[in-house]
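Possible race condition, two jobs.
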Amino acid sequence: MDDVRWLNEREARAWRALQFMQLRLEGELARQLAADSGLSYSDYVVLVAVTDRPDGRMRLFELAEVLGWEKSRLSHHVGRMADRGLVKKERCDSDRRGAFVVVTDRGRQEIEAAAPGHVTAVRRLFVDRLTSEQLDAIGDAAEIVLAAFDESPGGGTEE
């Protein structure tokens, strides 16, 4: 472990603040969704990803990549959402082993009903507390980190 590049004070401060901010935000947003809708936070992020597609469908493996979830976690969660009528799974004709996650009419209704309260909470907890410059800096930093995940399977961890 002699070659470990430990975080200096500045790096540790930024990293811990980001971790704790994300945990607190997810917790608060999950509470808001539970109070105002029948959706969990995980339901909401799945529905956002799928409904962002014009046809409301996404390959299961693509959804796992977008969310950063293990395939088994996603498969189980999508199964529970399908049982509740929020999404359905459709076989992929070009790849017999593959499947699409498709939003249902009920899923669209649920996310459309939940979105106003969710965005109000996002504004209250995050957006309205920051300047335009701070929002740009966070967006720029997040895009750089996310791009590293897209460039390599290890998230840019190889040296």
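Job #2 (started ~2 s after job #1):
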Amino acid sequence: MIAATMLAMGCRPALHFVGFRGDEYVRAQRVFGRPDFIHIGWDLRAQREIAPGDVVVFARGPADQAPQARSFSDILEKEA
């Protein structure tokens, strides 16, 4: 119902990718398209950013997994 209302208003549900780290990102993008949001991990902050009707694609684990209590960092930096 919410997704139908969003489409009627000219909005579309956002696509969220959660926990992707490598080649699985490319494969998921082929299936679902480019994500609107990329979450490093499934935490409470990521969960709050999901609106009703949005599509969430997890790299690993079930769709009903509990979010981590501690937040993931926003950026993963590689050491030189």
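The chain is about 30% helix and 15% strand.
Logs attached separately.
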